[in-house]
Write a structure and sequence with these properties.
By secondary structure, the protein is of the alpha/beta class. Helix content is 47%, strand content 14%. The strands form four sheets. A seven-stranded parallel sheet has the order 9-8-7-6-10-11-12, with helices on both faces. A three-stranded antiparallel sheet has the order 1-3-2. Helix 3 packs across helix 16, helix 10 packs antiparallel against helix 15 and helix 11 runs antiparallel to helix 17.
Length: 457
């Protein structure tokens, strides 16, 4: 009879192969400290890769007996897992890619706690201090290659998309890879997996054996969007704000596929940054794309942006429908301009230091009912500040939809209430209703109950 859970010990991969005695004991001690719950939950999410589930609360409850611990050895550490999802194993042995991701969790969760959060060198209140922290987390994860020319395309889009939209993301990834471009996504299923899957074929045809498939996530979302198996570099940032900054600092261009509230949050974050005066002359190609059936989706997104952020925001992206080759051609041309700009200004190819990101986009937002109700959702402010507040609103909706803490918060206190200018709130309500009708809030077949309520001041 097939068991749904497995107990095992996992040997180290990568940078954990050789550790000092101090490092071994520190990892062992801190893995059972205040960061244990985050370490456990992220590890469970990684082990559930491929599971058809987008509810963090459901995953944690299904495997409530799961446990993970760090076992010291003479030269390194091993990980002991008990009651782990059986899908992570083949004939009793853990799949290598999942084992790599499991040690990435250990690296990022424990490293950030011991080397970043508690270190006075990192002023996580200042804009530069946050950016320094993002840089060091990515560098420690081994994502940078100073000899690599700009070629990393960030792909955003929903985990709940149609089969036609998923196939389209694969075609775009394939065309990008044929032009020697790499892929970075939020690492989950749907539009986060499709481009990577298509790119593996494109890279293989070009005999490009060093394709980068970078997945960037954070502890709150990883349980709902477990890393897909194609990711060959996984990074877990401390929170959604640092995750978003990691995307725009490391990526050389961004492709946006259809999605739901999370994709809207990403779009608003990006446009808010690009609308800042200091960034208006910086090349940064952004393309919205999908199959012909997704045209209506992008019409609504475009209208929402025009109604809230204004016409200038619409100049920072182009919309290409049902043409993967043109998407790849335009992206390759845009990234060439990025390369020329970085070369002229002396900025690093692997990390965009010059991009201005103000603290409004860096400060972690806790989506409590009070904070959601208090958001400044009105047009009497700079467009980039409105984008920051709209981003927070959509971030709260994502939390209420799929994150364990957010789901429990809504179950206990009822839906979040969002208040603001009547015209702005009408635009937001119209967009969200379209997401619900198109089944973009939850996986198909799952009933969606809104975690929010919209009202006008």
């Amino acid at each position: 009879m097939f068991s749904e859970v497995v107990d095992a010990q996992v040997s180290p991969t990568g940078q954990f192969d050789i550790l000092s005695k101090y490092e071994i004991h520190k990892l062992s001690d801190e893995s059972r400290g205040p960061q244990y719950q985050a370490f456990r939950n992220c590890s469970l999410a990684v082990l559930n890769s491929g599971g058809y589930m987008d509810d963090g609360k459901e995953l944690l409850e299904k495997y409530s007996d799961f446990d993970i611990s760090v076992i010291p050895t003479e030269r390194s550490v091993k990980l002991r897992v008990t009651n782990a999802p059986a899908g992570a194993f083949v004939d009793g042995k853990m799949i290598r890619g999942i084992a790599e991701h499991l040690f990435a969790v250990l690296r990022d969760i424990i490293y950030v706690n011991s080397e970043i959060t508690g270190d006075p060198r990192y002023n996580l209140v200042s804009a530069q201090g946050v950016t320094d922290a993002v840089f060091h987390i990515l560098r420690n994860a081994g994502t940078f290659n100073r000899n690599r020319t700009p070629r990393l395309v960030v792909c955003w889009g929903g985990h709940s998309i149609s089969a036609e939209e998923y196939d389209y993301t694969k075609k775009v990834g394939y065309e990008l890879a044929l032009r020697h471009l790499d892929i970075c996504t939020g690492c989950g299923p749907g539009a986060m997996k499709g481009p990577m899957k298509g790119a593996t074929i494109g890279h293989a045809k070009q005999r490009d054996r060093h394709g980068q498939y970078l997945g960037i996530t954070e502890p709150g979302i990883i349980a709902a969007e477990a890393p897909n198996p194609i990711v060959n570099q996984l990074v877990i940032m401390p929170d959604i704000e640092k995750r978003l900054e990691a995307f725009v600092r490391t990526g050389h261009g961004i492709v946006v596929f259809p999605g739901g509230a999370g994709t809207a949050e990403e779009i608003l974050y990006l446009l808010g940054i690009l609308l800042h005066q200091d960034n208006r002359d910086q090349p940064f190609p952004v393309i919205f794309t999908g199959p012909a059936s997704a045209a209506e989706y992008f019409i609504r997104i475009d209208q929402f942006i025009a109604n809230t952020l204004g016409e200038e925001a619409r100049t920072r992206y182009q919309i290409i429908i049902d043409d993967p080759q043109e998407v790849a051609r335009q992206m390759a041309a845009g990234i060439e301009k990025v390369r020329e700009h970085r070369k002229e200004t002396g900025d690093a190819y692997y990390f965009n230091w010059q991009l201005k990101i103000s603290t409004e986009f860096q400060r972690p937002f806790a989506p409590t009912h009070e904070n959601m109700r208090g958001l400044a959702l009105h047009k009497n402010q700079e467009p980039y500040l409105l984008a920051a507040n709209l981003r927070r609103a959509f971030s709260g909706i994502v939390s209420g939809n799929v994150k364990d803490e957010g789901i429990r918060n809504v179950e206990k206190n009822g839906p979040y209430e969002l208040c603001g200018d009547p015209t702005l709130m009408h635009s937001m309500d119209t967009l969200l209703e379209s997401f619900i009708k198109q089944q973009r809030m939850k996986l198909p077949g799952r009933q969606y109950t809104p975690c929010y309520r919209i009202s006008a001041d």
